[in-house]
Amino acid sequence: MHDAPSPAELISAVKSFIDDTAAPQLTGHAAFYARVASNVLSTLLREIEQRPAAEAEELAGLKALLGTQAGDSIQSLNRTLCEQLRTGSMSISTPGLLEHLKTTTIAQLSIDQPQYSGLKAARAPRS
Amino acid sequence: MASHIFRAIVAKMGSADHIEKALERWAKGLFGPKSRIEALKRLSGGASQETWAFEVSGVGTSRRLILRRAPGGVAMARSSEAVSLATEAALLAAAATAGVPVPAVLGVSDPGTDLGEAFIMERIDGETLGRKILRDDAYAPARPVLAAQCGRALAGIHAADLASLPALPHSNGLDQINKYEAIYRAFDLPRPVFELALAWLKANPPAPQPAVLVHGDFRLGNLIVAPEGLASVLDWELAHVGDPREDIAWICVNSWRFGQIENRVGGFGDLDSLLDAYAEAGGVRFDTRQIDWWETLGSLKWGIMCMIMYEAFRSGADASVERAAIGRRVSETEIDLLNLLEKVS
């Protein structure tokens, strides 16, 4: 199958249309929604670029934490992790847990809201 | 129930014209027969509340007022935990007595009347938008004094005599954990950070405090700030009886610091300034560490509220891009939770 234009190129083209052509002609609620829509497309561009590596790292982290074999999906491993936290088999003092959750959440937020103040704080070395 | 629905339809049909006539009858009764209503304007279209601005002229200096009204004048869309508008008006009056800056209530209208379920209060000048309060030069004089003013206002609210107030919902920390956990589990979208926060909160509950009147949504957005500081505390619909630390911590939740993460209180002040002023005004002198548990619960609650707003999109109830996009803000509260849990662990 063809990939020219690529998904990222198509999304960028729509984003340019919203930012440069549509949004300047809108007012009130419609202008607000246009800005939200443009931000959503920026999220999608980051998702395309960053998710594959972020998921590979999350999967490796989950397997290290849970000591499971190959073949399990991220979804099923996260369900297992949630269950262990809920039942108390794992807790805040479990070695490696906070580090794994922080790495995963930093990667998620780098896609979702890279400007969020809490992200910068999380990346700063602990004082 | 047919008459109930019929009344709602009639009230909605009347809209601005209907409201203006009902307000004019009310104003003539209070200010005299020459009263006229001018500049009636809808300010917000919340699902649970209509807010209208208007002026009464023909009475000497014209009065700038606000109408808070149930949608269509009928309280059918308010969420189960929100107090009635009549209760909200009574709380504003009690807060004024306690020295808390609030708008004066000029009238309360009952369900079934021309105006419907509503109350009228004075309009206070100032800003509610967090980003403007934190960044505009006009509010530079307010920012250094705002934390202490919030401490004094909260001490006043928490000192209100419960026996003299209308019946209010009771909700302590564990009640809120149970409520929000049930909502989160019903979505079946498991998030390990939320599981960790839930487990930690349950394992480390703070010693209980005597129950007080809690505002329930005390943060930038619901405070009117003038250049000289706190001018008014608004939006009392989530008021309940509970733990005083809930209010103190809610304004510290990073989602309400609007980017100014270094200032724990609302992005403008430090927590010790608030706690000192709170104690000087008669409140308990809490330690900043006693606020950590409640701030963690606050971040978790806001995260689940973002999931609720996204659920409106997922379920098809609201197809707007804004409701979809808010699902990608849940991770903001996850990083805040991890930053808090890292500090306390």
UniProtKB/TrEMBL annotation, chain A:
<dbReference type="InterPro" id="IPR046252">
    <property type="entry name" value="DUF6285"/>
</dbReference>
<protein>
    <recommendedName>
        <fullName>DUF6285 domain-containing protein</fullName>
    </recommendedName>
</protein>
<dbReference type="Pfam" id="PF19802">
    <property type="entry name" value="DUF6285"/>
</dbReference>
<feature type="domain" description="DUF6285">
    <location>
        <begin position="24"/>
        <end position="116"/>
    </location>
</feature>
TrEMBL record, chain B:
<dbReference type="InterPro" id="IPR011009">
    <property type="entry name" value="Kinase-like_dom_sf"/>
</dbReference>
<keyword id="KW-0808">Transferase</keyword>
<protein>
    <submittedName>
        <fullName>Phosphotransferase enzyme family protein</fullName>
    </submittedName>
</protein>
<dbReference type="InterPro" id="IPR041726">
    <property type="entry name" value="ACAD10_11_N"/>
</dbReference>
<dbReference type="InterPro" id="IPR002575">
    <property type="entry name" value="Aminoglycoside_PTrfase"/>
</dbReference>
<feature type="domain" description="Aminoglycoside phosphotransferase">
    <location>
        <begin position="40"/>
        <end position="292"/>
    </location>
</feature>
<dbReference type="Pfam" id="PF01636">
    <property type="entry name" value="APH"/>
</dbReference>
<dbReference type="GO" id="GO:0016740">
    <property type="term" value="F:transferase activity"/>
</dbReference>
<dbReference type="InterPro" id="IPR051678">
    <property type="entry name" value="AGP_Transferase"/>
</dbReference>
